[in-house]
Amino acid sequence: MSRRVGVLGCGGIGARHAGAIQQVPELTLVACCGRDAERTAAFAAKFGGVAYTDFARMLDEAALDLLVVALPPYAHAGEVERAAARGINVLVEKPIALQLERAQSMVAATQGVVAACGFMYRFGAAVERWNALSAAGETGAVGHFSGSFHSNALHAPWWRERDRSGGQMVEQLIHIVDLARQNLGMPQAVYARAGNVFHHDVPGYTADDASALVLGYDDGRVGVLHASNGAVPGRWMKGWQIVAERATGMFADWNHAEIVHAAGAVQSETIAGTADPFVAQLTDLRDAIAERRAPRVPLADGLATLRIVLAARRSAETHAEMAP
User: Fold this and answer.
1) Element (H, E) at 116
2) How many other C-beta atoms can be found within 10 angstroms of the C-beta atom of residue 210?
3) Residue 188, Cβ neighbours under 10 Å: how many?
């Protein structure tokens, strides 16, 4: 059965999802919606479907089964809730909001539909291999997670504005924070520092471009994450390390890692996958709709991880430890 899909938000991430939709059998892009008529028409010409600039009209006319919400985090204004009220399943790009109240509203409104959050890192081959080992009890409990994301790009104007993007920890680092939460659980405390070190002379650049946060757990476990936007131009340097009782994972990205097993004789395995996590994420969502089950990354996970990064932002503002 073919599912009719619409994309709300015709920027770069919307295009990434649209390209992935084309690769998933039984998903058909039938509509897209954006504020700029010319840009939205070009999007539709490239990926297919009818171009809209009126979201209400798209809901009325497109008969959607699934809505991919690829809006910047500041731009949400009840679209997820309106789609869910019509029984339309949703995939919401991260971060799902800039305020907990907005995120909570989305999660509450989507209880009757299949609702997913766009944490696509979780669908990479290396991440899936670690998760399978963990589920089988082969890694033991995770005690330490560290991760980083370094880049050097101006991105879109809204991305550079702290009030519209949420800042570096909320926008840039959130994928890796989500992996830390997945492996360690929700922390009891968050401490962070952040500042605009490299771009304070760039007009309109008000977001932090150097940041670090610590996730604290009452039992002694710890997570350490940091980011910058002042590194090598054109390179996106991200990686993370997971230290568990019987295994250590060293990840170059979602598809590539070395996992060292330390139970008994030390053994190492190398994962070098080719999975497109956007395609894998949409495939899971397609199957979840057909099977009437929860997706692998439910929208509630977007709320949980948002709690952490918003606590980190408050901590950086106050120089005090915060509870998420």
Assistant:
1) strand 115-117
2) 18
3) 14
Q: State the Cα–Cα distance between residues 21 and 23, nearest whole angstrom.
A: 5
Nearest to 254 by CA among 153, 160, 102, 120: 120
90-144 pLDDT tens trace: 999 999 999 999 999 999 999 999 999 999 999 999 999 999 999 999 999 999 9
What's 122-275+306-318's CATH class? alpha beta
- Within 10 Å of residue 211's Cβ, how many Cβ atoms? 26
Alpha helices by DSSP H, listed for the chain, are: 12-21, 37-47, 55-61, 79-85, 100-109, 125-135, 157-160, 162-165, 168-171, 174-184, 277-291, 299-318
Residue closest to 93 by CA, chosen among 2, 12, 185:
12
Structure tokens at 13: 């991430």
Average pLDDT over every residue of 285-289:
98
Nearest to 65 by CA among 9, 106, 26, 94: 26
Peptide bond into 157 cis (omega under 30): no
The residue length of the chain stands at 324
213 by DSSP, 3-state: which? Answer: strand
| Assigned superfamily of 3-119+278-298 | NAD(P)-binding Rossmann-like Domain (3.40.50.720)
Domain coordinates of the chain in residue numbers?
3-119+278-298, 122-275+306-318
